[in-house]
Amino acid sequence: MYDLAIIGGGPAALSGAVYAGRKRLDTVLIAKEIGGQLLLTSGIENYLGFESITGAELADKFANQMAQYDIDEIIGEKVVELFKQDYFFKIRTEGDQWSEARAVILASGKRSRTLNVPGERELTGRGVAYCATCDAPLFAGRKVAVIGGGNSAFEAVIDLLPIATEIFLIDIAPHWFADQILIDRIEESPKVKSFQLHRVVEILGERRVSEIVIEPIEGGEIKQFNVQGVFVEIGLVPNSEFVEGLVKMNQYQEIIVDCHARTNVPGLFAAGDVTDVPEKQVIISAGEGAKAALSAYRYLIRQKGQV
Ligand SMILES: Cc1cc2nc3c(=O)[nH]c(=O)nc-3n(C[C@H](O)[C@H](O)[C@H](O)COP(=O)(O)OP(=O)(O)OC[C@H]3O[C@@H](n4cnc5c(N)ncnc54)[C@H](O)[C@@H]3O)c2cc1C
Questions:
Q1: CA–CA dist 193, 227 (Å, integer)
Q2: What is the DSSP letter of 189?
Q3: Measured over all CA atoms, what is the biggest interatomic distance in the chain, rounded to whole angstroms?
Q4: What number of CA atoms fall less than 13 Å from residue 211's CA on the CB side?
């Protein structure tokens, strides 16, 4: 029986683990992988103390700091079940590993939203991609489509500009939601062809992506383009399915927390992108993770002789 289980391996979880370690809580960290969305980020320039650092380097630094403390780790396992039994929690992973803890921090972050169109799932990893930072170099000299109209989509286009020969930027909205500074950087490029108010109908390809089919959302002529890559950049969804029914969430499936990182379930805390805390950023997730660990510590010392 652990004092604390932390679910996740991103900035919120790792920061929480450092704080839990310093309070000498008997802690287990369970994560699919260490790094979270940092691994999808090429450069971070707004994390205090580092003027510019790659996401992978920052993740390494976080993990090294956590390693200074005595934290048990279950890495490579996804939590699929979590429930409360009497005064403690039981946690089950996909590989059927069970853990028990008196308190839990949910720090499972977010993942990319999918288009849910024919061809997407079948061709994922074979031309359909969700991380331009990771996969753009694979499309040198190729034609690609980027789906979305926010910052992620524009950052993907910027990553692809020096690599791809032609970029179709496709979005259902009538105007872009990206920061103007990013819009300005691509609007002049002759490589980029924009299609606002269009939706993706289908992604075609035998072994790899070969075409994308789009249509105007208000009706009209269907268009088909020859592309070898499709970057889906339409936002993120919280990894909160495994606590559905246990904990209160908002309409976006984000876990509702108070300013102490407490959920509505005693002993269950949450931090970072998986919560309804506004602004999804590394520094905010790290701060919330620290807060959740301190709140968990306070919760535990109020339980009968637990710590
Ligand atoms: C392309 C991109 C660029 C970005 N650029 C910046 C930037 O420049 N500056 C900035 O501040 N922020 C940036 N962000 C946002 C930042 O990366 C996130 O806000 C931050 O990583 C959130 O941290 P987190 O720990 O809450 O969640 P995440 O980083 O999402 O980590 C969640 C962790 O939980 C694990 N997990 C999920 N489900 C389960 C489960 N069921 N069981 C076990 N483990 C699970 C995941 O594998 C992962 O390890 C960027 C994000 C992206 C995608």
A1: 13
A2: -
A3: 70
A4: 10
pTM of the model: 0.86
Q: Tokens representing 91?
A: 């946690």
Rounded mean pLDDT, 268-288 = 96
DSSP state for residue 250 in the 8-state scheme: -
Asked if the model's pLDDT at residue 307 lies above 80, the reply is no
Using the mean position of ligand 1's atoms as its centre, give its distance from the Cα of residue 282 in Å.
Answer: 8
Other Cβ atoms less than 10 A from the Cβ of 89: the count is: 23
| Cα 106 from Cα 144, distance rounded (Å) | 36
User: Can 135 be counted among the known catalytic residues?
Assistant: yes
- Single out the residue of 181, 216, 207 nearest to residue 45, CA to CA: 181
Residue 134 a catalytic site member: yes
CA of 246 to the centre of ligand 1 (A): 23
Query: What angle (nearest 5°) sits at the alpha carbon of residue 300, between those of residues 295 and 29?
Result: 75
Tell me the pLDDT tens digit for each residue of 75-130: 999 999 999 998 999 999 999 999 999 999 999 999 999 999 999 999 998 999 99
148 Cβ closer than 6 Å to some ligand 1 atom: no
Domains of the chain, each with CATH number or no CATH: 2-111+236-302 (3.50.50.60), 128-232 (3.50.50.60)
- Residue of 271, 222, 276 whose CA lies nearest to 249: 276
Tokens found for residue 42: 């090429």
Q: What's the CA-to-centroid distance between 302 and ligand 1, angstroms?
A: 31
H-assigned helices in 136-275:
151-160, 180-187
Q: Best mutation site among 18, 34, 37 for ligand 1, i.e. most ligand atoms within 8 A of its Cβ?
A: 37
Tokens describing residue 46? 């707004």
Gap between the Cα atoms of 65 and 82, Å rounded: 28
CA distance 277 to 285: 9
